[in-house]
Amino acid sequence: MPLPEIADDQEVSASSSIFSEVLMLEPHVDTRFGGLEGYIMRTTAGRRIYAFEGVPYAQPPLGFFRFRPSVPIEPWGGMREAKKPGPECLQLSPPKVLRVVGNEGNTNSKPADSFYNDKI
Fold first, then answer.
1. Are the CB atoms for 38 and 50 separated by under 8 Å?
2. How many angstroms separate the Cα of 31 from the Cα of each of 34, 56, 58, 69, 100?
3. Virtual CA dihedral for 57, 61, 67, 68, nearest 10 degrees?
4. How far is 32 from 75, CA to CA, in rounded Å?
5. CB 54: neighbour CB atoms within 10 A?
6. Pfam families per the record (predicted)?
7. Which residues lie closer than 8 Å to 103 by C-beta, 6 or more apart?
8. How far apart are CA 109 and CA 76, in angstroms?
9. For residues 29 and 6, what is the distance between their CA atoms, to the nearest angstrom?
10. Tens digits of residue pLDDT in 36-56
11. What pLDDT does 60 receive?
């Protein structure tokens, strides 16, 4: 079921009725991989949209799969929170800064677990 449009002058409501259209504070969508729980955000132009962040699109490229074509993600079943960006892929920052960013060297996160869309 598609999510309802959000008009700029429309208030976001958590109340529901079977006779009225409901705008969710935490929108949910079902995908072929499982459910996603997102949020409502405002664009730089002031438009309210439904946002889903940190959605994986492939398995992490670990071991044998390193430097090979991506492997599709397995269904996760149930609802997955999609309110924060996923880990960054390892990459060089702009040339004038000369530093590496991402999670490959970060011991606080899973290595190479970076096959995520920032926002969809």
1. yes
2. 5, 12, 14, 23, 34
3. -60
4. 7
5. 19
6. COesterase (PF00135)
7. 87, 88, 89, 90, 109, 110, 111, 112, 113, 114
8. 20
9. 16
10. 999 999 999 999 999 999 999
11. 86
